[in-house]
Specification:
The chain is of the alpha/beta class. It has two domains: 195 residues, Isopropylmalate Dehydrogenase (3-Layer(aba) Sandwich), CATH 3.40.718.10; 136 residues, Isopropylmalate Dehydrogenase (3-Layer(aba) Sandwich). Helices cover 41% and strands 19% of the residues. The protein has 13 helices and twelve strands. The chain has a ten-stranded mixed β-sheet, with helices on both faces. The protein has a two-stranded antiparallel sheet with strand order 6-7. The protein is globular and about 50 Å long. It starts with a strand and ends in a 12-residue tail after the last helix. The relative contact order is 0.17. The structure holds 3-isopropylmalic acid and manganese (II) ion (MN). Manganese (II) ion (MN) binds next to α10. GO terms for molecular function: 3-isopropylmalate dehydrogenase activity. Its EC number is 1.1.1.85. Belongs to the isocitrate and isopropylmalate dehydrogenases family. Keywords: Amino-acid biosynthesis, Branched-chain amino acid biosynthesis, Leucine biosynthesis, Magnesium, Metal-binding, NAD, Oxidoreductase. It is an enzyme of class 1 (oxidoreductase).
Length: 360
């Protein structure tokens, strides 16, 4: 299969973790006789420095015409600490999601048995957790009208959703649930928010055409508690943009490090694969960033294209790195291994074998 892949390293640790994914992809090409085509493009703070824009037109064009985008990370301290900045690096990512119609962020949270001790949560609570968050990605409060009064003392962000925006991700989520443990939890705040009531009405209606899937609804505040008390009760979680953002970071506590979690952002035409984590500017160029979230995002890309054996080979190699403790210091404090070394180890262990992933 010939895939054209856009590489958007972005800011902070983004480029260095993405470089490890590319290393692993080259190993996949080699092992499975594929030819992939790569092209790099700037996004985020780094693009603002060179072009003045967080998402240059050329980058957007490249992404449109690519089969997939591998994304590093976005954000820089000088903007985080400056609420008055009108143009911000994150706008590059948000515009990319919006322009490409990447309406569903798929965020799996599955415990790795070899790293179970890494979570601050009790082992008997988190063992065998296997849930997937379907986060709506191009609507809601992130994209609603924003206002700031002339004197700067009153601000607002509108949370708006249409039935159509809710139903397209709901169908994806129900279909995923059908293939898994057949349970879908809608997370909202329908006791307070009108937009949440539309979610509940729309999703409940759609649920009727998936009778084999059991659906329940939880308020976000309760869902946050449930996820820490008993994460195993969840299979698919379906939620809006803002709740999904918060819940997915919270879910990473179950795994023990945000440096391990991948995501796929998909739409009708395009797909982008990005780690959960941010740009972690404090770690930039120190060779300590964990490349695994980026590598597993790349594996989700392979799965997206039906390259299941290839994806499996990547995941087996990642698993091996955990078992052999070839991990970065965020996973094992005493580890001396850096980003590069872990990337080399994982790419060097990508082989065509029938070894099955028996993670649990
Ligand atoms: C994420 C990130 C982004 C988001 C930021 C960087 C804009 O936190 O992908 O979860 O809020 O969507
Ligand atoms: Mn987030």
């Amino acid at each position: 299969m010939k895939l054209k892949i856009a590489l958007l390293g972005g800011d902070g640790i983004g480029p260095e973790v993405l470089a490890q994914s590319v290393k692993c992809l080259r190993a996949v090409e080699e092992t499975f006789s594929h030819r992939f085509e790569y092209q790099e493009a700037p996004v985020g703070a780094i693009a603002m420095t060179s072009t003045g824009k967080p998402l240059p037109d050329e980058t957007l064009e490249l992404c449109r015409e690519s089969n997939a985008i591998l994304f590093g990370a976005i954000g820089a301290l000088e903007y985080d600490n400056n609420p008055d900045a009108k143009v911000r690096p994150e706008q590059g990512l948000l515009k990319l999601r919006k322009e490409l119609g990447l309406f569903a962020s798929i965020r799996p949270i599955k415990t790795f048995p070899s790293l179970i001790g890494n979570s601050p949560l009790k082992k008997n609570i988190i063992a065998n957790t296997d849930l997937v968050i379907f986060r709506e990605l191009t609507g809601g409060i992130y994209f609603g009208r924003k206002t700031l009064s002339a004197d700067g003392s009153v601000a607002s962000d509108l949370c708006q959703y249409s039935e159509q925006e809710i139903s397209r991700i709901a169908h994806l989520a129900f279909k995923a649930a059908k293939k898994r443990r057949k349970k879908l939890t809608l997370v909202d705040k329908a006791n307070v928010l009108e937009s949440s009531r539309l979610w509940r009405k729309t999703v409940t209606e759609i649920g009727k055409s998936y009778p084999e899937v059991e659906m329940q609804s939880l308020f976000i505040d309760n869902a946050a508690v449930q996820m820490m008390m008993d994460p195993r009760q969840f299979d698919i979680i379906l939620t809006d943009n803002m709740f999904g953002d918060i819940l997915s970071d919270q879910g990473s506590v179950i795994i023990g490090s945000t440096g391990l979690l991948p995501s796929a952002s998909v739409g009708a035409e395009n797909a982008m694969f990005e780690p959960f984590h941010g740009s972690y500017p404090q770690a930039k160029a120190k060779n300590i960033a964990n490349p695994v979230a980026s590598i597993l995002s790349m594996a989700m890309m392979l799965q997206h294209f039906g390259l299941d054996e290839e994806a499996n080979a990547v995941m087996v190699a990642v698993h091996k790195s955990f078992v052999k403790k070839v991990v970065t210091p965020d996973v094992l404090g005493s580890s001396k291994y850096g980003t590069d070394y872990v990337g080399d180890y994982i790419s060097g262990n990508i082989v065509d074998s029938d070894e099955n992933l028996n993670l649990n």
